[in-house]
Amino acid sequence: MQLSRLLLQPSSPLRVLSSKCPLPLLQKCSRFSSSSESQIPNSHFVERLEDNPDKPTSTISIDRSGLYNPPEHSHEQNLEPELVKHLKGIIKFRGGPISVAEYMEEVLTNPKAGFYINRDVFGAEGDFITSPEVSQMFGEMVGVWAMCLWEQMGQPNRVNLVELGPGRGTLMADLLRGASKFKNFTESLHIHLVECSPTLQKLQHHNLKCMDGDNINENVEKRTTSMLVGTPVSWHAALEQVPSGAPTIIIAHEFYDALPVHQFQRATRGWCEKLVDVAEDSLFRFVLSPQPTPATLFLMKRCKWAAAEELEKLEQIEVCPKAMELTRTIAKRVGSDGGGALIIDYGLNGVVSDSLQAIRKHKFVDIFDNPGSADLSAYVDFPSIKHSAEEASENVSVHGPITQSQFLGSLGINFRVESLLQNCTEEQAESLRTGYWRLVGEGEAPFWEGPDEQAPIGMGTRYLAVAIVNKKQGVPVSFQ
Ligand SMILES: C[S@@+](CC[C@H](N)C(=O)[O-])C[C@H]1O[C@@H](n2cnc3c(N)ncnc32)[C@H](O)[C@@H]1O
């Protein structure tokens, strides 16, 4: 297959972007902090729980003194949103504060009222925008990467193509449309979408133009096919549920940043975990654990992978055990079944300090403000992905991180935009150019000729890409 041929052909119809993402929103709606390179400081006051210096610190427990005891049937409580009541209930019945990770997980994925569960949160009408929603070229380029990996794998005739957290399904739809002329590739695919939200699952079903087969046998799941290229599609709650035994290509775009993080703060008695409690005034507040918590094991592990000089200057550290565990699962799967994984997200090539942020309707808000109505996300710790993968399987190699701009550039996005520009309306051309610069630009997009306040801010250097591949596959394209 010739990469240049693929990139230059007008394979798929041009998506009209302006209807999805009006320009005024472009400047403020993706999930990295647009104001500076620095990590977002958390303005919350952290109250220290009483600490008994005589107690040994080797046991794991939480000081339950001075806990808020909410009135059982107060009027105020009845007006509270379900999720707030639920979170307070956990804190009350647990008899102590909960970790930031537990708070984050409930806020995002609580099966009744989690942020992702009941609505479409993407785009101009939603809360934030992601690269696949910015331009069809993003999914197409990821498709080129996946096809090249498939070639490196020896063009197997059966491949599990897995996407973790597919959102609206836009990336996968653009990938399939872009690859539709490469029948040997598309005919090998079995698509597996790992998605916790029933609402988003329905949207993915719609956007991938899925048709459900007849249920011939009650014991056998009915087959769903994407009519875009005729590939079977199935949904799962976790990667572990995707059938193993076939070579696998895994895509995780803006999935890791939604995984729950634990936060630690340096105190005179050492590193203490930041926990979420309910204050006297019935509002959520941070407190510090008096003693080591179970997540301290992950902090210790993370610190072992860092240089002393890097840690010395940090007053806070975030760790994401779920990201480490997921990476181990990916590495073991790729190590045993062959294939590779592509992880693209905003984050750091170093220890993350204090990055947890909340976004509602394209604006940063307080983390505790009406939980479940705003997105929570945190910077991805790329070195921890690398170390977790290498530790989990000796059959895999980890490549990157490289910037999104390097990744898309090496796959030929500039040829693709030129090719699309040759056959479009002026409105589409405008939208294509804006989308292109938003994907590859650094800071404010260069050559912007519109009003200053509408200048798109590039995701090109703030988003990083890393690949975990089976060593048999060699070095994946764009990471050479
Ligand atoms: C930030 S969105 C990214 C969506 C998409 N990849 C994109 O770039 O537009 C995160 C996605 O992961 C899903 N998700 C978040 N946490 C999840 C979990 N624990 N298990 C499965 N899906 C999850 C969300 O429902 C959503 O589809």
* Small ligands present: S-adenosylmethionine
Kindly, what is the distance between the CA atoms of the first and last residues, rounded to a whole number of angstroms? 19 Å
Q: Radius of gyration from the CA trace?
A: 23 Å
Estimate percent helicity. Answer: 25-40%
Overall geometric form: globular
* Secondary structure: number of strands: 21
Name the average pLDDT: 85
The biggest beta sheet, please? 10 strands, mixed
Q: Regions with pLDDT < 50 over 5+ consecutive residues?
A: 1-12, 16-29, 33-43, 48-61
Helix run count? 17
Relative strand content: 15-25%
SSE class:
alpha/beta
Keywords: Methyltransferase, Transferase
Organism: Melia azedarach (Chinaberry tree)
Protein name: Protein arginine methyltransferase NDUFAF7
Outline the structure in words.
This is Protein arginine methyltransferase NDUFAF7. By secondary structure, the chain is of the alpha/beta class. It has 17 helices and 21 strands. The strands form 4 sheets. Strands 3, 4, 5, 6, 7, 8, 13, 17, 18 and 21 form a 10-stranded mixed sheet that branches. The chain is globular, with a radius of gyration of 23 Å. The relative contact order is 0.17. The model is unreliable at 1-12, 16-29, 33-43 and 48-61 (pLDDT under 50). Bound molecules: S-adenosylmethionine (SAM). S-adenosylmethionine (SAM) binds at residues 108-109, 116, 122, 130, 132-133, 165-167, 171, 194-197, 200, 253-255, 258.
